[in-house]
Amino acid sequence: MGEYILKVEDLWKNFGGLMAVSGYNLELPRGAIYGLIGPNGAGKTTVFNLISGVLKPSRGRIVFKGRDITHLRPDEITALGLTRTFQNLRLFPSLSVEENLKVAAHVHARCGFFPTLFCAPSFFREEKAIERKACEMLERFGMYEFRKEIAANLPYGLQRKLDIARALMTGPELVLLDEPSAGMNTKEADDLARLVAELQRDFHLTMIIVEHRMSFVMGLAEVIQVLDYGSIIAVGTPEEIRQNPKVIEAYLGTGDLVA
Ligand SMILES: Nc1ncnc2c1ncn2[C@@H]1O[C@H](COP(=O)(O)OP(=O)(O)OP(=O)(O)O)[C@@H](O)[C@H]1O
Ligand SMILES: [Mg+2]
Fold first, then answer.
1. Which residues of the chain are modeled with pLDDT < 50?
2. Tens-digit pLDDT profile for residues 78-136
3. pLDDT tens, position by position, 222-239
4. Domain coordinates in residue numbering, the chain
5. Is 1 exposed, middle or buried (0-12, 13-18, 19+ CB in 10 A)?
6. 15 in ligand 1 pocket by Cβ < 6 Å?
């Protein structure tokens, strides 16, 4: 416990005959940013689905803050401080930007069923606190002016940012970002990289970032794991990974690299 916020031991997942993840291991130090890369279909999102409890592993163990979370539900895992974003965004499209953040925060809200039902003062206090937190988060993300907009009407780049803000509303210690810069132009991606670095520092976060945009992940991560056909084929610093012949070969001809 202690030094590693997350340990993943010998994780396997098959879908019928397809081995999507084979023998994945990770020791993630608290406060670190790690990258997880690999060609399309390598198993990156499946690793996130397993760690966040969306899928159950065929084999293996996941330990978060010293506690075995392998068999917990996604909401139980979120409540412990582990959250993730989705490659295919899962916002509430017809709710406003601000409402999307408030809904996310309720996962962590302490108010039980009865105070909520009877509109007890504790419920209103909590509502106010959540509203304040949502506003602060939107200011940080440079999105305060969009707070009343319907999420579906936001430009795609802002929807991706909103999904990250939503994840942070649950008060996480560990955040898994699945292709945060997908669909963004270079400037938007550079701005997001700066924001992610600030968020990590200010909220004392640990992060794993899945990305196809190498400049993004290599600029942020101190260690990168490379998956290919469900197996880790390389682990190292961005510099080591950039020069690793196995990695270059895995990507060759796939067209999956975004400079
Ligand atoms: N729920 C599922 N049922 C069946 N097969 C699945 C399921 N989820 C993923 N797969 C398969 O598992 C493999 C790994 O998929 P995964 O989505 O984890 O890859 P990825 O590395 O995230 O790819 P990408 O870069 O395209 O997002 C793929 O062959 C995919 O088709
Ligand atoms: Mg994926």
1. 1, 111
2. 999 999 999 888 899 999 999 999 998 876 555 455 555 555 666 667 788 899 999 99
3. 999 999 999 999 999 999
4. 1-31+57-70, 83-172
5. exposed
6. yes
Quote the CA–CA distance of 127 and 139 in Å, as a whole number: 19
For residue 157, which amino acid is it?
G
Q: Measuring from atom 29 of ligand 1, which residue has the nearest CA?
A: 41
* pTM confidence score: 0.92
Q: Indicate the top mutation candidate among 12, 14, 44, 209 to test ligand 1's pocket, ranked by most ligand atoms within 8 A of CB.
A: 44
Domain 83-172 has CATH 3.40.50.300: yes
Residue-wise DSSP of 21-59: EEEEEEEEETT-EEEEE-STTSSHHHHHHHHTTSS--SE
